[in-house]
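Help!! Second protein's tokens look totally different from the first
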Amino acid sequence: MIKTYSKFIIFNFVKSFFFVTLILFGLIIILNVLSEIEFFKKINVSSYFPLYLAILNAPSFIFEMFPFIFILSTQLYFINIFEDNQIQIFKYSGLKNSKLIQIISLTTFILSIIIIIFYYNISSNLKSYYLELKIKYTADDKYLAVVTNNGLWIKDVVNESIFIINASKINDNILSDAFITQFDKNFNVIKNIKSNKIDIKNNNWIIYEPIIFEENEKKKIDKINLFSNFDYEKIRNLFSNLSSLSLPELIKLKANYDSLNYSSTDVNIQIQKLISYPFFLTLMTIIASTIMLSRNNLRNNTLKLVIGLFISVIIYYINN
């Protein structure tokens, strides 16, 4: 059973956490709105649309800022108990600093697990929806690349032709076991190309030993070139926004990458980041608590805030 003082500490810490989160959420929405207005300044959209996109995108930014949110929440909590002399009451009641840190750290760990299980999945779905809406207004809206359990699929539009490309393997800049279908703008088939090796290092693809099916005829040549809006780097970048995928989707994507022989390093890092996130946030809270309780050496709360944020920034970038 939770003791009365523990309930009091947990309630006030959680209150500080939600206060800091709401303040930063508001600031992020303002910055996002300004960014979206800048993006849509030459595009005719309804006046509320930039705000709508900003709200959809804000939760994923908040997730990235949780290390700083927990640092600030912890520091705000201690500033409040110092000003109300609650820390002295805790000491008179026999509550040691180590016990206080333990309660706050455990609360952080539980909040972090809730964040991973519930909040992250919601924010990733909102991010995915945000990207779906915004891509319609970019120059890349005609292009698409996805990885499924059937390999890599690419939709490309070049001049008046539409290309659908499927490859079962991708190794560095080489597509293996690839099949390309070329359509006209009305989706009438122009020709099909089959090849076991396509070099996609740049936009001028080199198709080795292609078998071409055109007008009921089949022919095989040494190699041909095909211009594409995609190259290897662009395909890699298309799959780099992993914050729009929930944890189950990341696990599924990893399996698809492995079956495609595509590097799953980035996906593994994202999964490991999510698994370790509760420990990382708890560490941030412990560091902030230790700094704030160093009253003998540091009596100025502003200095403690600066030191806490400085240390958290260093740890954040080392972690990344």
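Here's the second one for comparison:
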Amino acid sequence: EALWVLENQLKQSVGMQTLSDVPLGAFLSGGVDSSAIVALMQSQSSRPVKTFTIGFDEGGYDESSYARAVANHLGTEHHELRISPQMSFDVISTLPSMYDEPFADSSQIPTNLVCKAASQHVTVALSGDAGDELFGGYNRYVWGPSIWRKIKWMPFSMRQNLFSTLRKLPLGEWTRLSSLTRISRLGEKVQKLADKVESARDLDDLYWSLVSEWKHPNDLIVASQSSKNIDARSITLSGIVLPDHLRFEEKMMLLD
């Protein structure tokens, strides 16, 4: 019954968003979030939904085949844009004019490119943004608490040494393991995780490390250089009250 209620609410929400006087489409990555949105759109449309995705020339980063499979299954009018390294590079110099503040997310580049591609066909496009935060879709919600339970008994210095060693292992050493585990880009993911966990003294540290692209966020705040009372965390958490009964992963989702 709960699943039926959830599906019904999502269907109503998507239906409300598709009431438009202008051409409408959707971004489709092939992941659960955007695929669910497009499926709910298509179920309420008498015509094929226009869907848009991008593919990368580098095989290790290209996931366009998943979007193509979903589009074929749902019968959408699918558009795929192939991205070269030069196309991505050309976007970088235009980023400051798009955002009002530093935005440390590499997805801003492909998002800009897929928006440009979609604008040739539609005026409005739905996406699966916020699905991960609402339904626990990010790896950190699973791996963060799981890893912490396994290492919290270690003294901080021991944890530092362990993850420093993992971080320094050559990517080539992980390639063979990657084929065994079927985890794409295993080496990159392990090194990134090791870098995040290495400096965490407690669960709060772990959360901030997992969500930060910058190891020392206070360095980005000019005022913090002259005042010990200004802290990036306190600025970010201003006005946010977290209920005590929430589990760690639930607190991460709520903060996100």
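Reply: Different proteins will give different token patterns, so don't panic. The first helix runs from residue 2 to 17.
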